[in-house]
Amino acid sequence: MTNIHQYDVVVVGGGGAGLMAAMYASQRAKTAVISKLYPVRSHTGAAQGGIGAALGNLEEDSPEWHTFDTVKGSDYLGDQDAIEFMCHEAVQAVYDLEHMGLPFSRTADGRIAQRPFGGHTNNVTKKPVRRACYASDRTGHMILQTLYQQCIKNNILFYDEFQAMDLLLVDGKVAGVVAVELATGELHVFHAKAVIFATGGHGRIWEITSNAYAYTGDGCAIVARRGIPLEDMEFFQFHPTGIYKLGILITEAVRGEGGILFNKKGERFMERYAPTIKDLASRDVISRAMYLETRAGNDVNGQRFFYLDVTPETVNKYAEIDGRTRPDGTPYRVTAQEILSKIPDIADFCQTYLGIDPTRQPIPVQPTAHYAMGGIPTNIMGQVVIDEQNTVLPGLYAAGEVACVSVHGANRLGTNSLVDLIVFGKHSGIHAAEFALGADFVPLPADPTEYVREQISRLHAGSGKEKAAAIAREMKAEMFDHVGVFRTQEGLEHAIQKIRELQERFKDVRVTDSGKIFNMELLQTWELGNMLDLALVTAQSALARTESRGGHARDDYPARDDVNWLKHTLAWMDRDQIRLGYKPVVITKYPPKERTY
Amino acid sequence: MQIKLRVFRFDPEKDQKPRFDTFFMDVDPNDRVLDLLEYVKADFDSSLALRRSCAHGICGSDAMRINGRNYLACKVLVKNLHSDQITVEPLLGLRVIKDLIVDMEPFFENYRSVLPYLINDEALPEDGKERLQTPEERDRFEDTTKCILCAACTTSCPSFWSDERYVGPAAIVNAHRFIFDSRDRAAERRLNILNQQIGVWRCRTAFNCTEACPREIHITTAIAEVKQAILSGKV
């Protein structure tokens, strides 16, 4: 049986971007949120270090500097009009969060505390600047909690544990989404004037990742199957400091507080790769340095990991060498207690998963798949744009990690994920409500759940010869080895062939659980299909781009090539083929130049 | 190491009553219990149903009973259990829907009942900037901001087991987070709610909640502070 609901605006996803969108959309339009997780389980909650905004609470800073740092961090692939908009909006967005009750850490005079982060600089002195506003080392947790609290206060309507599976388009216009209610297995049609996708990223296609199990790229896969292109999918950020083997994130704030990276010889190797800001260089730069160190045999025990040392002895020694000072000009010196108070959750992770105290022992780290710069193409109002001319698809929106505005370009600057979801979540919500008030419902197709039923019955009808878990394992290993920090033509071709083979084998998977109630096997098998599709789009987009830029590093094309590649990739899934197109990058104030740190 | 894993199973569409399935497997002592459940799904029985997401103790999805005690499955390692026999069951006190999945709605209903959001209708600072709060004022409620709503505390509480209308420790923790926030203006309303029969006085200080909390929140202390505030009328 099918249930039909009608809302002006339907938000898919209950993380930071989805909750922001819902709060703003619901002020003017009848709005509902559908989310496969309880909203408080969303991956926004895993963000640790901070949210960047040029409040200037501790030293001089400006949105212009934030803009330039973001443009530079993006390796000039970010759209500068969008970046400028985001960095200026960031300041008010952070104050808004504070007014909603977010418990930011505080300065001695009661203002929002700020700390240094990778790639955040004073544009005049080139030195690190304190721009990351933080709540201990659980800033994302506090953002997610605060937004959810405000949603309760404002009676936002939630459909919790509903998995969206299809987008309904009629004559190029949005008619709604189809979702399965996990508790009953029933299909629900959400007839809507506007739909906002805020479903997060897809880091689970890689073996070592900081991402949650839920990060399977559902939003991208759903819209791509309906003919919408995905932008810049070859750009995925590998964060340099994931816990060895587990991939759990160790925030950049650890280096912001003075932590130093060492190779097996005890060398502070970042000195050689980023002489000016060293351990606080952009993430892509450090991940690549680790790869090169590994190739030179400088990884620890030949096991592809390095040490992140935040013991007070090391922090103080290098703070002295670097001439680091506190805001009042006195030398920067810390005790174990102060470090613990700044990064309590990190200390807890180290204790739980490694059995070590980070104020006494160094942390073994390696690059971990962390963040999708690419995604569903949008403009700064969150409207989805579907071609090289940025033609708007009326009624369709995307915000947060699932979207590609593009403000992150080829590499996201630390803390900008939270800025992105707050700023663009808000504006997509405002704009979607505005759109819905001036639009009529597009009539539903005759059989709105047809495609979802077809997908589900296929998953039950496989021969059973293949196991989903085996296919997932092979995909993740292949992606980590060949579509990871460094890529080559040979490796990418290998990956493409392998993923196509896995897609074929996937047809022989059969979901064994035939039940309706919480059929998690069905859900997770469907998610694997999404991941395989996105893995292919990622590898194909990466193969075509014969240059190195930000998170996309090619061994065989080591230089950035602005003449041929200063452009965004668009990838369409045309049945089994991936078709690529390109659109220009928006450049306003900052012409591309060499990127050094 | 070789372990024997017993997992609670119940499929409401097939089973009259629950059972335990037993799996023998070779695991790393550093494996999380969640990893073991994922091995079951990958290699033994793909129909096992549980909730999980972040896998590192932040999202709160996978609270369950492991060897008779509440943990997040992703935050307890095999070696921490000091046993080669591991039994995994759903949380107590909430209705089992399927396998390790329980009905969380009563838990969230209790959470919502304590007004878990900042209430302050006064004018914002004229410059549009942040409300000021000293580090000391913030420290007053820092501990209770850590809650991830996993329900490990509430479902370990004997008072909750005997009456699920009791708001439970998680709801009190979230009330505490606002009652002691210098920016909030509704402490009295929350204290009135918690002063009712199904409120804070149902707590018998069993300490189970504090022991169960994967975020190491000093829950019993927080509850005591709320009780004290009700009695003294001061926060």
Count of folded domains of chain B:
2
Structural class call of chain A reads alpha/beta
Please bin the fraction of helical residues of chain B. Answer: 25-40%
Count of alpha and pi helical runs of chain B: 8
Tell me, rounded to a whole number, the average pLDDT of chain B: 97
N- to C-terminal distance of chain A = 59 Å
Average pLDDT of chain A, rounded to a whole number, is 96
Straight-line N-to-C gap of chain B:
52 Å
The CATH architecture of the largest domain in chain B would be: Orthogonal Bundle
CATH superfamily heading of the domain at 450-584 in chain A: Fumarate reductase/succinate dehydrogenase flavoprotein-like, C-terminal domain
Please name the fourth-level CATH homologous superfamily of the largest domain in chain B.
Alpha-helical ferredoxin
Strand content of chain B: 5-15%
Q: Strand order within the widest sheet of chain B?
A: 2-1-5-3-4
Radius of gyration of chain B from the CA trace? 20 Å
Largest interface summary: A-B, 62 and 61 residues
Oligomer: heterodimer
How are helices and strands ordered from N to C of chain B? EEHEEEEEHHHHHHH
List the SSEs and their pairings.
The complex is a heterodimer of chains A (about 600) and B (about 240).
Chain A: E1 2-12, H1 16-26, E2 31-35, E3 51-52, H2 63-73, H3 80-99, E4 114-115, E5 132-133, H4 139-153, E6 157-160, E7 162-170, E8 173-181, E9 187-197, H5 218-225, E10 230-231, E11 236-243, H6 253-256, E12 260-262, H7 270-273, H8 283-295, E13 306-309, H9 312-322, H10 336-342, H11 344-354, E14 363-372, E15 376-377, E16 383-385, E17 392-398, E18 403-404, H12 416-437, H13 450-461, H14 468-482, E19 486-487, H15 489-506, H16 520-544, E20 553-554, H17 562-565, E21 567-574, E22 577-584
Parallel strand pairs in A: 1-2, 1-9, 2-6, 9-17, 15-18, 19-20
Antiparallel strand pairs in A: 3-5, 4-5, 7-8, 8-9, 10-21, 11-14, 12-13, 13-14, 16-17, 21-22
Chain B: E1 2-9, E2 19-26, H1 33-44, E3 63-66, E4 69-72, E5 85-89, E6 96-98, E7 101-102, H2 105-113, H3 135-142, H4 158-162, H5 168-179, H6 187-194, H7 208-212, H8 219-232
Parallel strand pairs in B: 1-5
Antiparallel strand pairs in B: 1-2, 3-4, 3-5, 6-7
Helix pairs in contact in B: 2-5, 5-6, 5-8
